[in-house]
Amino acid sequence: MHIQVIKSKIHRVKITQAELNYVGSITIDEDLLDAANMIEGERVQVLNINNGERLETYIIKGQRGSGTICMNGPAARKMQVGDIVIVISYASMDFEEAKTFKPWLVFPTDANKLP
Q1: pLDDT by residue (tens digit) across 23-82?
Q2: pTM, 2 dp
Q3: Of the candidates 91, 56, 66, which has an alpha carbon nearest to the alpha carbon of residue 13?
Q4: Which member of 57, 70, 93, 94 has the greatest number of CB atoms within 10 A?
């Protein structure tokens, strides 16, 4: 049996940009992606602490060290600059493996940088 478990989480980052006229996705600083073991194109869930919105999208790699968290396309209507969000990805794995799996958890500073 396989189950879905949390693989990676970037906890409490601030949205720095919102680009409505874009195909869609979330752009994330490459430093944060590396720390969270996330990759470009990976499906993620974005949870907005400010308004309770939850949505799924995919990652676009942002400029390393920039602190960029940009909501692109339709997501820019649900989340705006200054909102605090949590970005989560999941993995499918064997039930027994999942019992001992340790996810990558990242807790950035207020400036969306690694501590």
Answers
A1: 779 999 999 999 999 999 999 999 999 999 999 999 999 999 999 999 999 999 999 999
A2: 0.96
A3: 66
A4: 70
* Region for residue 82 given its phi and psi (left: phi exceeds 0; alpha: psi -120 to 50; beta: otherwise): left
The reply to whether 66 belongs to the active site is no
Which of the residues 25, 89, 90, 92 is marked catalytic? 25
> What integer pLDDT is reported at residue 23 of this predicted model?
78
Verify whether residue 25 is a known catalytic residue. Answer: yes
Residue in 8, 22, 58, 90 annotated catalytic: 58
CATH of domain 2-100: 2.40.40.20
